[in-house]
Protein 1
Amino acid sequence: MFKTTIPFYNIQPQNEVYANELDQASYQIIHSGNYILGPYVEEFEEKFAQYTQRKHCISVGNGLEAISLTIRALDLDPKKNIITAANSFIASALGITLAGKNVDLVDCNPSYLFDTNDLKKINPENISAIIPVHLYGQMADMTQIRNWAESYSIPIIEDSAQAHGASRDDQTAGYKTAAATYSFYPTKNLGALGDAGCIVTDNEYLANHLKMLRNYGSIVKYEHDFLGTNSRMDALQAAFLTIKLKYLDEFNQARRKIAALYNERLASISNLSLPQVEIGSTHVFHQYVIEVNHRNELQKFLTEKGIATLIHYPIPIHQSKAYKSQLSHVRAPRTEKFASRILSLPIWPGMTEEMIEYICQSIQKFFKT
Ligand SMILES: *Cc1c(COP(=O)(O)O)cnc(C)c1O
């Protein structure tokens, strides 16, 4: 029987594919003397814009700042709220707070995504922008969200930090919206070897504004047109990302294959719901999330079998200590229910069929006893 422990995430099989290329790139950059912004960053921005089918890509320091800087660049009414998803990583909300705006949250649907039905309960008069999240690797229903937002002229920023390479109805994030933001945190589907992020957009004015905002409000050295900040990408990270981008589709395909194996082997368990892929959606499985009865007991059982799992996320944003008092009005019963019932299984390129078999057998064993 398979004995080794299975980590929740292991980057090594991916690293082996491009290790030589990363070595060469770091050597070149060390000796170039050019470490922040510059040609390597411009090359990555060009390639990622092309990959995401957007006109512009503006690299920044991380995914959180990608959100907060985009909000700042849109110059929104400070008295109104910005809506994001209750079922998300805290950064989706924190980006709003850090840009000096008020957060409001909507619940998720059974696919764990931004619930478009919940939008109907919201008074658009109070809303200055909306930030749907493409969670776990799957895009939210942008057609519905755009229909709602466009009828009130509310700009949309798509938090795509978990959805590099995803599409829905043949459209990628940022299609007919203000912008889409990405994180290149090392464990994302496309990850740097440190912190990095970016914004993609078809809006030239927004792109130029963001380029200045990330660099002290300046495009010409020492000329500062407005109050910017420092959120720039390193040449090293850009060069690494340009290399890794070439393999993104291949690795996303590997994730989908693992998801298909899980689906096949877990389908017969009646106490367990498989992740739903929406019609027309290309899911890139940043996470493989199941919903189960007795989640905590299952997680403990799997730990004892040497299988690491995580919960995304155990405490909904509005129930976290950080947001509890200011978001006490939020009603998100589905998000709250999922927080006690969902479990993320390991999914990383390089996992073997033997590992997946062992994980599925262990889950079957748990539900039989
Ligand atoms: C990772 C993540 C972010 C933040 O990215 P950082 O680069 O860690 O700042 C934002 N939103 C979501 C949904 C994420 O998963």
Note: The first strand starts at residue 56 and ends at 60.
Protein 2
Amino acid sequence: MTSVTVRLSDVRRRIEAAARGCGRTTDSVRLVAVCKTHPVEAIREAAAAGQRDFGENYVQDALPKIEALADLDLVWHFIGRIQSNKTRAVTEHFDWVHTVDRARIAERLDARRPADRGPLNVCIQVRSTATDGHGGVDPDDLDDLARRVADMPRLALRGLMCLPPQASDVDRQRAHFRELRRHFERLKADGLPLDTLSMGMTGDLEAAIAEGATQVRIGTAIFGPRRPRT
Ligand SMILES: *Cc1c(COP(=O)(O)O)cnc(C)c1O
């Protein structure tokens, strides 16, 4: 079996090649290693190879890992659907949330953010016009939500995120990512200080980087196939 260390350096090479291919620098793309379903040992191996940012989808699986790895200086990203009864755990234990898609959830994250931590970094998840059911705010409601989140004192609105349907064809992949980038640029032109486009996974990171991704969320290519949740 290939080790996490080897796969991680393969992913870094993919990111580097994709960035270079469109005239961007490698350090303009942050790699979030998505470790959902994978054990603490695999995360330690990635951390030993220099990886700092990790993403989790399930609060109840993530909390014991975050605690077990508290000796390392890691940055934790919540990338799953947020249930309102989990907002306290999310805002207490994570550094980033990529999946805010309604004001009520944002209000709860804001109200419960511990005073001894800096503002919670937030991306708004936007539904692609081509899909329903993947979560995300309707593009028609995005500007209003972005403004409201930007005004919340304990949240730092950083940017936008999308989870488009899988497509094997690069043009289709790019079309989804381009749509998100257009929203991003419009909001910036309207004065919101955004710096983050969270888009791209194992199967489409090259297309995402070509369309301006500043964070890619990569699971399978680093940790191998997902394991059954226990
Ligand atoms: C699981 C997951 C990823 C990583 O997907 P891979 O295809 O394994 O790289 C990225 N983003 C989100 C929101 C996920 O749920």
Note: The chain has nine helices and eight strands.
Protein 3
Amino acid sequence: MCALLFAEVLLEAVFLSVDPYMRLFSKISMNEGDVMIGSQVAKVIQSKNPAFPVGSHVVSNSGWRTHTLSDGTGLTPILPEWPKDMSLSLALGAIGMPGVTAVYGIEDVLGLQKGETLLVNAAAGAVGSVVGQIAKIKGCKVVGSAGSDAKVAYLKELGFDEVFNYKTVGSLEEALRKASPEGYDCFFENVGGPSSFIVLQQMKNFGRIAVCGSISTYNDSEPQTGPYPYSIMIIKELKMEGFLITRWQHKHPETLTRLLAWVKEGKLQCREHVTKGFENMPAAFMGMMRGENIGKAVVAV
Ligand SMILES: NC(=O)c1ccc[n+]([C@@H]2O[C@H](COP(=O)([O-])OP(=O)(O)OC[C@H]3O[C@@H](n4cnc5c(N)ncnc54)[C@H](OP(=O)(O)O)[C@@H]3O)[C@@H](O)[C@H]2O)c1
Ligand SMILES: *[C@@H]1O[C@H](CO)[C@@H](O)[C@H](O)[C@H]1NC(C)=O
């Protein structure tokens, strides 16, 4: 027990998130000994803040900690309409940061239209699996790539039109052409690196590319050079835009509500890869970077 000041709450982590950006962030702006950044679903175990009563749950950017003293700033309560029988861990996945990433990438960056063909890579991951399902809801043809046959099978279950395992497919170019001989209107990019260049050749003229992530390069100690995309972007008149979800912070509550509604209606399925034990955070994180997860990787305390 600790003596809280007015408005303070004591949080206890229930589920913690492991995300690719942690690798990028640790490389760019962290020193040895710093607490790793990250979000978690936490239970309020002591409170002097009427907005966060004891026993309620919040999403908090507490980093990799089991217990956090907070003055209430930046805490997001779990949506009041959250069903009793639905795991709160989804607030770190499909009804959380990765979910809103999928929505903004599709709607605000790509402006994906009914009938268009969309390609998404890291398709069986937290963001990718939501991207493909939303594109199906919008009446699009969806092609996904992922790194194992189990992931390919899962994506077919989710209703993806064409799926391939990029590790065993041999020629990425041929796989892309076979999956959509007429090319791609939109590309939701999660992976980056040389494979992106191959995808650009398969875009339709005036194709749009949302650069959401570049996970294949986050662990590099030297920046990769070439092949460069400029010639093909000119010839095909492509439009490429990077984004960070913080741009649409003001829309998060409304977007989370829409995602929750899709889940309740059974239109959005969300698988999770749950690792047990706070002490296994590093292993869970490295496993996610290596592709061990299907769906969102989380740690249950
Ligand atoms: N812009 C934003 O605001 C924003 C917000 C959230 C996430 N993101 C980005 O979105 C991407 C997906 O994040 P997530 O949280 O949904 O992670 P995730 O997809 O659940 O997990 C990462 C996946 O990346 C794949 N991967 C790892 N190394 C790869 C490589 N060299 N080539 C191809 N695939 C590789 C692995 O799947 P395989 O088995 O398929 O290889 C792994 O499962 C990341 O790039 C992340 O940085 C961006
Ligand atoms: C990241 O790079 C380090 C060496 O720099 C290596 O030990 C580690 O296995 C790499 N991680 C992944 C997920 O590739």
Note: The radius of gyration is 20 Å.
Protein 4
Amino acid sequence: MTSNLMIIKDKISTAAQKSNRSEKDITLVAVSKIHVEETILPVLKEGHRIFGENRVQEAVQKWPPLKEKYPDVKLHLIGPLQTNKVRQVVGLFDTIETVDRPKLARTIARILEEEGKFCEIYVQVNTGLESQKAGIAPSEADDFIRLCRDELKLDVVGVMCIPPVGENPVPHFTMSRDIGERNKLSNISMGMSGDFELAIENGATHVRVGTAIFGKRPGY
Ligand SMILES: *Cc1c(COP(=O)(O)O)cnc(C)c1O
């Protein structure tokens, strides 16, 4: 039987080839937020290991038992992060994709140092300048990346964006890629179930796909 995961991987491969890239250059982050263990387990059994969660409270309950069975799982935090949750996050997540303000960056740097831990960091950019959305303003992104990388010595690997709902995402993808390129960051996290192929054609290295793998989230 062809699984959703296989279908998505196939589409990633096709989109990569279309822009003369290799499927190996694209990492699939399977967004398992809201979904329960029984829904996630089949995807783990198929061999997938990189997952995205957006709520700290949910992830710290759900993932420790799963990580006991699958110790090589890598977790990406893709939702907003409050400074008082940073210690929990660095104990569970390998990557924080949503670093978007100096206070948060400073707290992460301090706690990583205190705990002797290591996390990859993405700077989230609010490409649509939406007031309700997290992310640093595009005009402040270069300075913020410099602060995180040069002053705080964080391991900044990339840029992440969530384009405004209902808008053509391409200008947002392009802006994110430009910010990444001019700051010499290798990873660009963008593209969800509805637009991951377009994101890949516009330079995504990491796509965050939930619904197309796990189905509709319960209660949504
Ligand atoms: C939920 C979520 C996704 C996945 O969305 P789907 O449309 O289900 O693929 C991707 N990125 C972020 C930041 C999310 O919160």
Note: The longest strand covers residues 155-161.
